[in-house]
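Same chain as my last thread, 72 residues:
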Amino acid sequence: MNKERKIVKLIFNEEKQIYTDLFLYDDDEDDKVLLEIIVENHMLRYKDDNFFSALLELRNELEKKNIQIICN
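reply #2:
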């Protein structure tokens, strides 16, 4: 499994900003990818067919909590 680390900025309630690690895993065995991020001491994990789809799931979950992920 290949692992890559990215630093992303999170904005809470359009005010507080933090930087955190976003880990990207590419699993050659099942052709799936995995995103992991720790937000407020909670690990969020999203597995999908590609990184874009997994990132959309992550973004949707964070936005429910008034958290925006800033990355490119």
